[in-house]
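ok so i was messing around last nite and threw this chain in just to see what happens. nothing serious, just curious
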Amino acid sequence: MTAVTPTYAVKDYKSDLKPIWCPGCGDFSVLSSLTKAFAELQRAPETCAVVSGIGCSSRIPAYTNVYGFHGVHGRSLTAAAGLKLARPDLTVVVTGGDGDGFSIGGNHFLHACRRNVDMTYIVMDNQVYGMTKGQASPTTAPDWCSSKLTPEGTGISAIQPLQLALACGANFVARGFSGDPNHVAKLIVEAVNHPGFSFLQILSPCVTFRTEQRGWKDVVQKDKIAAATSNVAEALAILAEDDGVATGILYAGKRAPFQPNNKASSDLDRIERKFVA
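result:
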């Protein structure tokens, strides 16, 4: 039996622009994982869209050869949801960072989880604002004191993205590590294929402002949370023992994606007749 040659290769999803992240940034690997995932999914480039907000990781749409939208700070999920609801035939992926997604975009994240629109949200979490030179972010530990703005630490508890996504209704929740791009690509494929709102937290080191994160490669526990469950209580129990560096698929829910009735006619004459009547 003759093997079927894939129609699209990884290179078909890459643009000609060269990424300008700091050497060693984990976002290089996430970009590679994303293009590998698209090739694995075999979705035509013109049927895919990558949407982002503001930040280092939010530059990703420019480096891909699919439809892209670089929006304003914290609003990527709203733009992506509108796109997906208007064009349900598109594969919509959102990329961003912990600052963009959980600070100014935090409220949108909560409602994106509960609305359960069929799209995938990839957050590259380095626990710092890298593009604006090293401020503490919502996921920064309270005792991190290497920033000049918080020399004694923030004293504020860090949010827990997986717990937050699960509590707010995300239909797929997982964590990966940029140092294992093949595993991240696999997680992206699983997330895109799963119906509803999928959330991926990717530990992506900032080697410029969080040099200690170079050590993540020695402590990350691959697939420790790989026993995916569709039971929220079971998933929360797993997270009760979570140390923040375990990777894998935590939760795969069964909720049907939100999709409004788009059968209403857009015929201008019909709309005008309603006003005349």
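not much to say yet. The first strand starts at residue 48 and ends at 52.
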